[in-house]
Structures
1.
Amino acid sequence: MNGVPRKKKIDTTEARRVIGRVMGENLREYRSSYAIALAAMLAVACTTAFVAYIFKDVINKIYYQRREDLIVPISLGILAAFVIRGVATYVQSVMMAKIGNNIVARYQHRIFDHLMKLGLDFYTDTRSAQLAARINQNVAGVRELMDITITTIGKDIPTLVALIVTMVLLDPILSLFALLIGPPVILTVRYLARRLRSIHRESVTLNSHLLGAMQEATQGIAIVKAFTMEDQLRAKISALIHRAEERANKIARVSERTTPITELIAGVAIASMIIYTGYRAVYNVEPPGAMFGFMTAVLLAYDPVRRLARVQVGLERSLVNARMFFEILDVEPRQADSIGSVPITVPTGEVEFDKVRFSYGNGVPVLHGISFVAKAGKTTAIVGASGAGKSTLIGLVQRFYDIDAGRILIDGQDIAYVSKRSLRQSIAYVSQQPYLFEGTIADNIRYGRPDATDEEVIEAAKLANADEFIRQQPQSYGTEVGENGVTLSGGQRQRLSIARAIVRNAAILLLDEATSALDNESEKRVQQALERVMQGRTTIVIAHRLSTIVNAEHIVVMEAGRVVEEGVHDTLLARPNGVYARFYQLQGREESPIIDDTELQSTAVTGPAV
Ligand code: ADP
């Protein structure tokens, strides 16, 4: 199945695998940039160590031996070291940011392409959809993982090594003392990191619950308000927020615990060093330069040590994100085109279902051997109660899913063996809920056929009865719609989606008739637009309006995944005790057996359509 596995513990091997994969996918790509960044980091490490080392000469040669000739050279040396350090830090930061931004951009491209390839089954899994919604956060995880690893390896470890070398050069015995404090620091930090890891995992899970719950609540806001669920939801979300806050505080407490511990250890170390070197200076009359250089090295080492101590914490968080990201990227798109599939040619657009059996992933049969022919250029109306399998049928013509048995033929070609792209290009689909995308009105119509000329777009809009209202918009065809654009009425949106289908100029039209009620005037315009787009095309329509059904050249009556009757209105009506005849007699009455419940609402508002 395409489901994404639940969050599970990240063990060390898996962590290593994820890091390995991130490195493998990116190191080579950014070879030269990383080389520059690493060189800059090494320069930072060396100059840091140099500053510590030169302190010995500052104290001994300038203050102790009073060598006037060295004042200027040593000062200039220190100035140069700081300038190099500044430039190198700048180069390194800019380089890492550039690489990081590019990693994010590249993965965003990749994940979007991937999301477009995934079948509809992926999107019906809400958990996957939620994961997809948080892609940006997850991509950031991949970037962070690279940043942390490279900075650790390139900067902090070399800086620390250079400083330790400096310490040894300055005072080997004292270095031994200083290194003795290493193990206890490492041990405490490791203990805390382990504790943090489990708290952090809880926090990530909690936060995704929280985000998911908020997303659901806002997406279903109409239902929330209709059922006055606000208080219940508020209580539920409050509890989650409270727990997330507690976790975040706990993380802060535990991770900050490293600070007092390391401060204490550092204080003890420096105090003992002063005691040792102090007595040595007092009794041996030894110049204190080496000691000052040494202390400087210890103080400078503090920063990289602290960062290294936190590496595990940052790594843990970005690992969780990177792993979620790869989980989506690793979902195999199912039912790719079979090898040797050819483009379909659709001269007339006759659609034939031949003993089609189908079940969704869960194995429950939905269609039990459907056979019927939708004649070329004619309208075939599919009627049946909700859940009969009408939408499934429409989806199968577009090969959103592969069928279990039987064949679907278009002009005699089995669609299982043609390329999906060519198949879908010969079909226009008007969904029940018209969907507009970010962009202008013209863009939205042109999604039907990207190479349509402006004239064709306008012509389609005219046929769809949309031209008039489009011209009344602030920027006419250039008006922005979608998320950030103007709000159009339901009827206007429907007419735009019809214009999109007209401009596509495909031989086959799949139509899921809208059930939502429009006002009479709007309804008439939409109806007229639909009649025009159906003209001369093979139309398969999930019919909700009696007028559509009565006027159809062929009616297919479905019940629970089977075709129970088919024919034209008059013959079906003449059948004694026929399903259709019963339905027709009951039309307008509430217990209509073969028509969607939704229809009842729309007829109730708009009045009977015939
Ligand atoms: P209709 O369009 O006639 O209302 P559908 O084709 O939507 O019927 O549904 C037919 C049957 O298939 C129903 O029992 C429904 O529960 C099931 N079904 C629809 N979509 C899915 C899906 N994505 N996964 C599993 N079952 C589904």
2.
Amino acid sequence: MPDSTAALAVICAMAEEKAALKEHMSFIETRDLLGRTVTLGQLDGHDVVVAESGVGKVASAVTAALLAREFGCRGLVVSGVAGGLDPDLHIGDTVIAHSLVQHDYGHQHDATLTPFRPGVPPLGSNRRDYAFDLPRDLAERLARVAVEIALPDLPDDLLPPPAETADRRPAGLGRRVLMGRILSGDQFINSEAVRRRLHTEFAAQAVEMEGAAVAQVGALLGLPVVVVRCLSDLAGSESHLDFPRFVAAVAPGAAMVLRRIIREL
Ligand code: SAH
């Protein structure tokens, strides 16, 4: 049973994502982990240990496991950016995962992949229960907080010309914060066909490269895992252009949502 007064581990894949959180931390102390700086301190009065893991499932999983063991953390959080899969979502919207899936893990037939639960034999229910789901009471509490969160509009200088506004929520509607399913795999998704397939096959809202790997670590260690992702791109044919353009502007959105939900964790 983790100590309920212990710190939460927060894993960010990239420096921009960690910087957005560090700005709001106090009582900062640093340690070294795998050659990178781990930042210990408080986020709005809550003890946290924040690490930049590097991109991908292995980097984030090993970081999560080491943070949990070295600092005796009571839970694991992933905070950062993602590509949107659901055509109803726009850059700057934020998804909190109630369900996490490793979309690149399973049995590859010719063109189709049958997902399996990672880390266990692909037998019986492990062929069906491939998602790591949040406990229902935690998901419900987070959903109640999510609808109350208002994020500031993205800076005007990032607005695309009027002809390209499909990626952006029409002015005045505000940025959404919602519960959803997030997919993780060791691929940056930059294809409209793959975006459509992942959205349809998994009924998922966003795709990134770490969350479901950390969920697998949490399942092994008996720790809750909460993933918060603000959309930097929509995973389609423009994502390679949108990602670098929006990453620094949307990373603070994930940090802002985490600060609002941290008291529920
Ligand atoms: N800047 C890095 C690449 C980052 S990969 C480089 O140039 O090497 C993208 C990162 O943001 C990952 O950590 C992933 O979790 C998230 N992400 C954002 N959009 C994504 C997308 N369309 N597909 C997959 N991951 C995405």
3.
Amino acid sequence: MSNTATLEINGEKHEFPLVVGTENEIGINIKTLRGVTGGVTTIDPGYKNTGACESGITFLDGEKGILRYRGYSIEDLADKADFLEVAYLLIFGELPSKDQLDKFHSDIKAQSVVDDDVKKIIDAFPKAAHPMGVLSSLTSALTAFNPSSVNVDSEEDMYKTVVKILGKFPVLVAWAMRKKQGLPLNYGSNSLGYVENVLKMMFEKPNEEYVQNPIIVNALDKLLILHADHEQNCSTSTVRIVGSSHAGLFASISSGISALWGPLHGGANQAVLEMLEAIKEDGGDTKKYMGKAKDKEDPFRLMGFGHRVYKNFDPRAKIIKVAADEVLADLGVEDPILDIAKGLEKEALKDDYFVKRKLYPNVDFYSGIIYRAMGIPTEMFTVMFALGRLPGWISQWREMRLRKEPIGRPRQIYTGENYRAFKDIAKR
Ligand code: CMC
């Protein structure tokens, strides 16, 4: 195989080196394109064909439905690891030893108090505020309470920032929900596991002890692992590009939360449940909604279907579908929404429109059903996604800074007006 690609523009040939990844993915390195061609650029809306970086964190093969963190399959990790181990793996590159994991957890716990003045900020939000907006603002506010900038050349400094956000973020997640429910803003307990503590902080009532349910703890642990990273998706690219200006970790992650919120990205889990509810209220006629999804005049899309990268199946959706059945059975919950979801999936998988476009259920299609069975309110679903994605964002931000990547600054092709003389206001 040749190790260059040739581009011919106006009869002039230019050679560009190929970059081959460890899984034999091939990229064309066009770093010198503008220089050698006198300013020619590429155009690729939505970056469908553009690799923004080289990365050693997550590998996915959309055709084969493969997803691996640092080489480990998502199936193995969801089955055998816990969320904190996966967070360590993503951020530092290797599975931790027992001692490393214990130290990591105790360093996180040592950082799990949020400045009490943050409560005043929360007080100022209306109760109706969406918790994603609240979470993004509070994460940004952490910058104000932790102003020192990170020396990325110091391992120790980087580590301190990482454990700080992993400690404080679950508190903000829980407070975003408790604010909405009018519950006091409390703390969990450092004697608990990371995920158990999240649940206690979210659900504990002021007048009764919170009793952990191992089925819920395990299900949440698994969901967080499945969401922990997904290479250069919209929110992760946002975190990397904001961080590329040397903005701090908290500010970069706050931007990632905003990107995740949209219904085409993480917001889809909330949108799926609202869609399934609407179908149920409307008499359960799935065919009607399939028709709407296919109608190009109708803006309706089948939420939880389709993926930019997966064109065969989403391996996370496979695991979550099985987990949804198990969790509902274990908790003794019967949810008619699950039947509607299964019906929709069945119809879509044999429908020409969906088959031709390779549209399959994605990670968000079944996750909301599990969250709902756990008692998590619909508006919190995307917040739970953010909690799971946090280690991915951290690891990608860290990798980008350690590799000393340049500031992200795409080009454009200008299609506006050519030069015009200024017209006085009286003559317009
Ligand atoms: N329902 C109906 N039609 C769809 C859907 C859908 N959910 N998704 C894609 N299509 C059609 C789309 O109209 C287009 O048709 P045509 O070729 O006739 O113009 C074709 O399929 C290709 O779609 P696209 O929008 O060009 O594909 P994309 O890679 O830009 O978008 C997507 C991927 C995930 C944004 C899109 O499939 C979508 O909007 N899905 C629904 C929202 C959703 O579930 N998002 C969660 C994604 S997974 C988790 C995450 O990333 O956070």
